[in-house]
Amino acid sequence: MKIAAFGEIMMRLTPPEYLMLEQTKELRLDFTGTGVNILSNLAHFGCQTSLLTNLPDNRLGEAAKASVRQLGIQDRWIGVSGDHIGSYFAEMGFGPRPTQVTYQNRRNSSFGVSGASSYDFDAFLAEVDLVHICGISLSLTEETRESAFMLAEKAHSLGKKVCFDFNFRPSLNEEHGVSFMKEQYEKMLPYCDLVFGSQRDLTDLLGMQLDKTLNASKQFEALVQRFMTKYQIEHFAGTIRQGEGSKHYLTGFLFDSENYVQAVPKEIINLDRIGAGDGYAAGVLLGVSEAWSLSETVEFATANGVLAHTIQGDVPLTTRKQVRHIMEQPTVDLIR
Amino acid sequence: MKIAAFGEIMMRLTPPEYLMLEQTKELRLDFTGTGVNILSNLAHFGCQTSLLTNLPDNRLGEAAKASVRQLGIQDRWIGVSGDHIGSYFAEMGFGPRPTQVTYQNRRNSSFGVSGASSYDFDAFLAEVDLVHICGISLSLTEETRESAFMLAEKAHSLGKKVCFDFNFRPSLNEEHGVSFMKEQYEKMLPYCDLVFGSQRDLTDLLGMQLDKTLNASKQFEALVQRFMTKYQIEHFAGTIRQGEGSKHYLTGFLFDSENYVQAVPKEIINLDRIGAGDGYAAGVLLGVSEAWSLSETVEFATANGVLAHTIQGDVPLTTRKQVRHIMEQPTVDLIR
Amino acid sequence: MKIAAFGEIMMRLTPPEYLMLEQTKELRLDFTGTGVNILSNLAHFGCQTSLLTNLPDNRLGEAAKASVRQLGIQDRWIGVSGDHIGSYFAEMGFGPRPTQVTYQNRRNSSFGVSGASSYDFDAFLAEVDLVHICGISLSLTEETRESAFMLAEKAHSLGKKVCFDFNFRPSLNEEHGVSFMKEQYEKMLPYCDLVFGSQRDLTDLLGMQLDKTLNASKQFEALVQRFMTKYQIEHFAGTIRQGEGSKHYLTGFLFDSENYVQAVPKEIINLDRIGAGDGYAAGVLLGVSEAWSLSETVEFATANGVLAHTIQGDVPLTTRKQVRHIMEQPTVDLIR
Amino acid sequence: MKIAAFGEIMMRLTPPEYLMLEQTKELRLDFTGTGVNILSNLAHFGCQTSLLTNLPDNRLGEAAKASVRQLGIQDRWIGVSGDHIGSYFAEMGFGPRPTQVTYQNRRNSSFGVSGASSYDFDAFLAEVDLVHICGISLSLTEETRESAFMLAEKAHSLGKKVCFDFNFRPSLNEEHGVSFMKEQYEKMLPYCDLVFGSQRDLTDLLGMQLDKTLNASKQFEALVQRFMTKYQIEHFAGTIRQGEGSKHYLTGFLFDSENYVQAVPKEIINLDRIGAGDGYAAGVLLGVSEAWSLSETVEFATANGVLAHTIQGDVPLTTRKQVRHIMEQPTVDLIR
Amino acid sequence: MKIAAFGEIMMRLTPPEYLMLEQTKELRLDFTGTGVNILSNLAHFGCQTSLLTNLPDNRLGEAAKASVRQLGIQDRWIGVSGDHIGSYFAEMGFGPRPTQVTYQNRRNSSFGVSGASSYDFDAFLAEVDLVHICGISLSLTEETRESAFMLAEKAHSLGKKVCFDFNFRPSLNEEHGVSFMKEQYEKMLPYCDLVFGSQRDLTDLLGMQLDKTLNASKQFEALVQRFMTKYQIEHFAGTIRQGEGSKHYLTGFLFDSENYVQAVPKEIINLDRIGAGDGYAAGVLLGVSEAWSLSETVEFATANGVLAHTIQGDVPLTTRKQVRHIMEQPTVDLIR
Amino acid sequence: MKIAAFGEIMMRLTPPEYLMLEQTKELRLDFTGTGVNILSNLAHFGCQTSLLTNLPDNRLGEAAKASVRQLGIQDRWIGVSGDHIGSYFAEMGFGPRPTQVTYQNRRNSSFGVSGASSYDFDAFLAEVDLVHICGISLSLTEETRESAFMLAEKAHSLGKKVCFDFNFRPSLNEEHGVSFMKEQYEKMLPYCDLVFGSQRDLTDLLGMQLDKTLNASKQFEALVQRFMTKYQIEHFAGTIRQGEGSKHYLTGFLFDSENYVQAVPKEIINLDRIGAGDGYAAGVLLGVSEAWSLSETVEFATANGVLAHTIQGDVPLTTRKQVRHIMEQPTVDLIR
Fold it and tell me: Complex ipTM, two decimals?
């Protein structure tokens, strides 16, 4: 299956060795973004992947493309527009100190200023079976909203699978209120086949209600099933994080039209606190695109999410072999 | 409140990535010292701070001043004298391997050779509300003892608050015995308002006795109260470390003339095993200088001490916002 | 003399060891900008300096302020506004390969979005004898133009010295044509006492004519004198670069109302190709503020400009002692 | 034109900052090789490129492929075989100290053990217009000789252009004598259209004679013309290095069936002393494949070779814009 | 006691900060190998040590010797032969992600191609009391097997102690089956006095049977005693790893002809997952060579093995003082 | 010939990439000192070398010894005393910016506090043919003077060759005047066979007069000959630096009892401006100890001095092969 994504390439700048920004002049530069992360992981799983986006026509744009290629993603649909790449600084946390992300201007990025006319959606879609669209597009600018809607609509009408990721960040939506954002998501969802989200996305953003008459453990299940029926979603997936003392666990869930499965919780040991969600998503996309059973899919995807936390940076670089290794031989900590 | 400190600026040289000295030629250079650490943290809390010390009139002295300014401390009371900065090498421990500190010559440092005539105490004190004096001054050289006593006496007589930190290190006092050091501390304490120390400082150094007729849990409290009464100390504070299996916990305590509070123990996860004491002291100085309740003060100061262990180097760089964050949302490990 | 500047703090991101962006993930982060560069150098010369600007209220803003303090510049007039710091990437050239600078978005920076109402000019000017304004302000945004004009006007009317730097970059002025920019410069110049610029600024931007009837060597002199008379400028200064085979030379010039001097050309050996202009300007400001002779000033300033090229980064960190050393003992290449 | 190469991917391990191996534990790892270098440069010129080779099926092989993709080269013809990648250590020279290359085992590399049956030459050639074969293949192993011959023969018979690079290294041919090597080259040359070499390759290796009756300046020209006629070569190209005092110059030459041109010598300023030959070859391949004039080609290729010496590592990463820049504006050393 | 070893010097190349090979171009180079590791540790314990091996006569060979000297090992028995040093890349694991070792060609290394005639065993043995031979020699090449056998035989006949380490790696023995390897080990064991191995070495490789009629806890003991009797082994030692939840423990065991002791399990906290076995072996060799009690020896050796996991790289650099410190004061995590 | 030295081991701390101390927190640590430098170079030439000195009994002392061993020097005569190692910071110059050395306290170093009773000179000398004593010993402390005199006297009386290096630094002798220092040198010289120095040492320090009646070119020669006769010196050697425009040249000279030779000046291209003197001295010691002709010796030693400037750090690491390479093939800048 040829998998593509539409989304922003950002720069992540990270001080080394858990230092804070005041403590060092050295930074590590990685190119990242939800689309980059998911596609790179799928490429490492052996899929053919391609990213649709725009970058500036300068040295930074070229460096970004080189990095994307290195990650295994085709760069032929990366166009040229604008003169800025959005960036964020990640001061990596340690123990009780949280990882602190500081965003720089994203709205004026090459991606942010690119409307639908900047892309050749038809040619792009002709080469694609499934396209992933990140919800950030709905928050960023009028241009990214327009582009996301047109891409989703065209893909849907051409019978391509559309995968959508809620990824709702209040910090990016201070300008527009929740009701504006709700409208945007409601406009997008009818085009979508596979959706990543959480209970909070359905209740707080879309305004759906939990059925309190149900047994507590069934409320979430029923809510999701109503949501999937309403928008004719084929799969809905996401992760839950739980803490127990100073230990943290990750559990993935996955719904299809009839069933609901949840993975065995797996302990999280963090090298980098960013990126597990995209790792989980890549795992689900692999399982769904290869028609694995739901439970095989969530177990693989959860293991992959946990591995993503052990890798520096947002981009999960795991192979099938590595994921299967920690599923099958979790106690082997040295391979030679 | 304008807070100042009198103390030594030292160089800390640390190999990267937990390497031992034999394993690398790379070192990280930080300027540190109890005064630097506490003032830098108070500056990050928004206080106006100033350090009284001497440095050599050379490139190293200039670099040290630049670093102190960067940390938010005013450098206008840093004078010029001598030709040497004391240093120590910190081989950072990991798991059961302890952090190993190796000191180089301190007695011949610019600070060590500077007697009272090297400083303009009156002008300095005119700009200060509270001055912190580190007990190391009493151990280092005849000159630093002389300077510390004169500064404390003048500050006291001018009605400035004097904060003193026992910081008794047997390794710096092999030349003089305990009885000599006891005399020095007894000479200093009458000038002091706020003192940092431990039970052992009162019993082993000052030779005070625990009242064994008391309930065990009251013996320490009674001891401190006798100590505070004897020297007319307004606040006495310190930390206790406890281990439980492979976990370690930090608890701060704080006495005023009438009450005694102890914080809820907080788990320590170490990035750097040096610096929590100064983080705790900065927290207490903030609370006391802003007249917080004792319990508000110890909880904040203990959280700050725990955060200090998650920061590379001796210098705590926490802001109020960061400390409050881990007090209020301890499970959030990623902020964006 | 208390010297201040009004200008932008930018981030410079530089790959190590002459690598190109594609070749490394490591970057060195420096905070820079014309104001930062000149003031830092003056602070290293022993002057009291202060920067008027705005930064975002986040971790990057704090890191920028810490860096500015380290350089010796007071940070009390650095306000909070916006949420972005402009940045540029510098791929350092080697031999025939030019240094390549790639700018990221500057117009949306905290400085770019700050109009006159963001600053308390009166309070600021009360503490200042001379203020430096960088011409970039006239190119950047409507807000920076407005702020620059109001500051210059107020400073002028209060009898403070105003120093202005043409710094005209066509790349920042693609939107507005030359005639628009000419108007802006003409509006600014009447407030100015000391101006940095080049012959091209006077002819191509202001549209002044060389008097071809004059001896070629007098044309530039006469042009500048007309310019100075027209706008009642006290000093006009700048640098000329000349190549001779593979060698390059720097020469500073300086006019006062009556005289014109030019320095002995000094060979440039580049560690970093950015920053000599600001080094030259700092040298001139020092000489003028201390009323040195014109020729003493240009020789010192030219030597300082040459030294700036031997220092990594834009920020000249030279002391008077270092500049005098290479003026007096140019063949001594090791000091101990 | 679709350009491909057949050749080895090697690891280059380089200590930083001109250090010698004894002086550091840090190394920079680059993947390199004549094919990688030429194709990467052509990809930066905008050509579609592809490498035919084999790598081990392990983590190093994956990392090598990722690096090749980053450089802009398609990795779909990189197969899996063997378990070793050849490597060399480059201690970078400075001034009179030469760069010292130390090779590790190459004969047992994945490439070295791969015979003709390891590759699908027909499928590969179907996608290619011109294929570059490095002469190292003739020296390395029986398997690489066999593969190179079969590829050249098939390409030639299919009417694809074959480009061959003498690249004769005595150090790789201690086992076999010159007469054995001569046979190999004579077997290869009839398949070739474009050949890179030197006068010494024709005289010392192939045993051809200079015609001493000719004017000295014509001897080389006549020799090459005889060589080209004998093997029906369309283009012959190479570089000459000349020293003049402590300055070094690079000059490229290029023959077609009728003409001979030589570039204006350009001064070499070395950041890295390895890689100019491949930069020159990439320039020639670009000119020839786009049917530029001989003189346009050699000037561009020589400038590119000179630029290659200003870039860390063997791989030239220059764009057309950069090469044209130093051809047209050689004195501009800072672009912004 | 003068302790020597016969074995390979390898290069270990490790990306920094837990990065994977695709994520960085930076590597750390260490020279390692079982013999290097054990001797270096013994040298840090104060023993006189010497390594018998061969290296190439080039810059890498010189760098390897310099590194060995730095570790405290005499280099006078390191000869010159071949032109290759075996290497491996270690991608360091984190949490559930295992450390991944990728070997490069070892069979063609200088050590691998050196047969018995390359060494002067008699002169070497004249200076030695005990010689350690690593079992890898039996797997590597015909030459290393021949050398190991001759050295062991000569040492045994001269009355020197021979220490042998099973170190059986299936990955190095794909070519030869288990029965071939069994023969080799059986040929070696009669020369040995002290052997390091595991139950699996005795059962799976040598084909010995557990006596299932015994109490489970006695089966291993009885097996080892039969093994020791059969080959007249004086000491047999090894380690057992156990997991309990996410915690791991190391326990050493040691047999002499009459007794069997096992250490108290110690928790493992990994900085580096490679090297504890060699640390344990060095501890046992120290105890045995100084005639400590069995239990003193295993406790020291186990503590040393645990410490080895807290040190970057394979080479344990612990001193007696450090080992005793964590045995006696396990809760002190900062020494100054 | 077994060559030994008596002298201090110092730490050199150097910022990377020509940065100044204010610009970085990273430092490179090297152990250095005249004795270390000369012996290391002789060890690389194949001589057996040994250093007599004292170091503290701590982690730094151990790291220093490890480094000395790595350089090829035996550490068995390095004793334990004191608790401090002298250090200096080297901010590396570039172009017109001079290298700036800043010393930290040396007088209180382990070497500085070690008097004659700290060493077993007899046992040491029994293993030595020639001993090098650095003149710094005469400046440092009473203890180092006493040690140097006793060692020189004993060596001389035992018929060992004594090599002495003036190395007179006014900065280390501010306390004692020139006449005091003159006495010390006059006391040392009668024990010496081979002396390194300059004309200025003989005139300004020893107060000898140039014979102005001689032809200018003969004055130096006659002066040295008088000096050598007076103290019965066998060889006198040193270097002269000359500038010609921006180029610098190094020339070595060497006297024996009858002849005087001077090398052909060689251009200096500096990677590091410290260490050429020790490189020259090592070359002379090699030639003299192997009884080369004077001119062979000065050419080799001068080439070695020039190479020393191309190596990072003070310690020359050149081999005979490398020195001969640049003498015989100065234009080959790449060896493979």
Answer: 0.95
